[in-house]
Amino acid sequence: MHIGIDFGTTNSSLAAATDEGEVTLIRFPWQEAYTESYRSLLYLERWREGGRSTIKSWSGPEGIRKYLDSDDKGRLVQSLKSFLTSRSLTTTEIFGRQFQLEELIARILRDLRSAAEKQLGVAVRNVVVGRPVRFVGSDSDEDDAFAEGRLRIAYKKAGFEQVEFEFEPVGAAYHYESMLDHDELIMIGDFGGGTSDFSLLRVGPSARKSGRKAREVLGNEGVALAGDAFDAKIVRHLVSPALGAGTMLNSNGKMLPVPNWVYFKLERWHHLSFLKSRETLTMLQSVATQALAPEQIRALLYLIEHDLGYPLHQAVQKVKAQLSGNEKAAFAFQDGDVELSETVSRARFESWIGDELQAIEQAVDRLLQATGVSPQDVDKVFLTGGSSFVPAVRRVFSSRFGDAKIQTGGEFTSVARGLALRALDTNG
Ligand SMILES: Nc1ncnc2c1ncn2[C@@H]1O[C@H](COP(=O)(O)OP(=O)(O)OP(=O)(O)O)[C@@H](O)[C@H]1O
Ligand SMILES: [Mg+2]
Questions:
Q1: What is the Cα–Cα distance from 242 to 74, expressed in whole angstroms?
Q2: 422 C-alpha to center of ligand 1: Å?
Q3: Along the 428 residues of the chain, how does pLDDT read in single tens digits?
């Protein structure tokens, strides 16, 4: 078996290819059925066993179930991949214990490995794994190397032995190629939760016959924003204003704004659960006593203390997905002190994500320019990843390449499928 793993910011998937190139996806139990995409989240709880206290964790669908079932919420962390470049986040305190980022990610990867071993009936040790062209937070190749090194450590901690990295869009290209009976010059656009990644390459039977070396990757580009950055704008416009963003407090007669860094963290899934620290909660409690809109700050405190990042993410994801198919959608979020509901038009959402769309366009243009390829030379454009459903993202490509060249599919699994084929290419 040749194994490919796509550890995504939001969802992960795992695929196995036989020597003949037949690919199967690993399936995970979820709500009396199965899913092939595994939420990359980790839920931790303090656990007492025989008088001893330990910290237990669950990831993916099991993590969601445990989180939803527990009355006294532990800690739910999301989008951990986005921390890999962060030199300031080496360890974090959870229930009084220091956790390394690598350890938290390894807990997810270990669960993925167990699920794969159970389904395949073989040990899973050697893998080809994906990485974005540019990690979230990266300003240089050095930052990317640093992030990749940390991800490698996480894989090793999770019990993998031989770990080879490949760019995620190149993985998607292998999947696209497996359905092709002729040669093509293709552009891949993979839009995930954390990053948008692009590759220009020649694929098809000729490349396949002559092996990986012959596959011509003309170039790669990436930009460290995607679905999570779109979500941030939804939170900024629909959620934060109801939780006291932009309001004032009265500190001994002096009018000051409520600290806005809290709202910046509230907007980003990977930061949200880390707001639940003693210092931040104490600070917000004191803000609540001085605030001109104390009930809004208390609602914010409620959201942080009760670890509502998961239901908030669900609500945001729902309105976003509905706007992919409809011109209007209803946003609704209700929990404890927090009650929000509003109708949003697609045009309004698109105006919020204007900067992100522009950054995506610039990355596509940079790739074309750097490789000296003009849109007419590109035979097909393959768009994949969950955020490729966003109509404004698709328009970036239809306006440059024309609708006829756009292909879509395998939004949540194409990268893992392709990485398994890439593993076969290396091993075989
Ligand atoms: N129908 C939809 N419309 C818009 N966005 C969607 C839709 N379905 C999923 N998404 C978004 O897609 C993103 C997840 O996509 P995907 O699973 O491809 O990312 P990932 O592989 O985990 O992330 P990355 O590749 O950046 O590490 C999330 O931001 C999610 O909200
Ligand atoms: Mg992805």
A1: 25
A2: 23
A3: 999 999 999 999 999 999 999 999 999 999 889 999 999 999 999 988 888 888 999 999 999 999 999 988 899 999 999 999 998 877 788 888 888 999 999 999 999 999 999 999 999 999 999 999 999 999 999 999 999 999 999 999 999 999 999 999 999 999 999 999 999 999 999 999 999 999 999 999 888 777 655 467 899 999 999 999 999 999 999 999 999 999 999 999 999 999 999 999 999 999 998 899 889 999 999 999 999 999 999 999 999 999 999 999 999 999 999 999 999 999 999 988 788 999 999 999 999 999 999 999 999 999 999 999 999 999 999 999 999 999 999 999 999 999 999 999 999 999 999 999 999 998 77
Task: Write 113-116 long-range contacts (CB < 8 A, 24+).
Answer: 113/158, 113/159, 113/160, 115/14, 115/26, 115/28, 115/38, 116/3, 116/14, 116/16, 116/26
Distance between CA atoms of residues 7 and 258, nearest Å: 37
Q: For residue 141, report the distance from its CA to the centre of ligand 1, in Å.
A: 25
Rounded to whole angstroms, the Cα distance separating 257 from 249 reads: 6
Ligand nearest to the CA of 11: 1
Compute, in angstroms, the gap from residue 78 CA to the centroid of ligand 1: 13
pTM: 0.96
The CA distance from 365 to 370, in Å, is: 8
Burial of 149 (0-12, 13-18, 19+ CB in 10 A): exposed
Q: Determine which residue's CA is closest to atom 10 belonging to ligand 1.
A: 386
Q: How far is the CA of 247 from the centre of ligand 1 (A)?
A: 32
Cα(183)–Cα(203) distance, rounded to whole angstroms? 6
Residues with CB under 6 A from ligand 1: 8-11, 81, 168, 192-195, 226-228, 317, 320-321, 324, 385-387, 389-390, 412
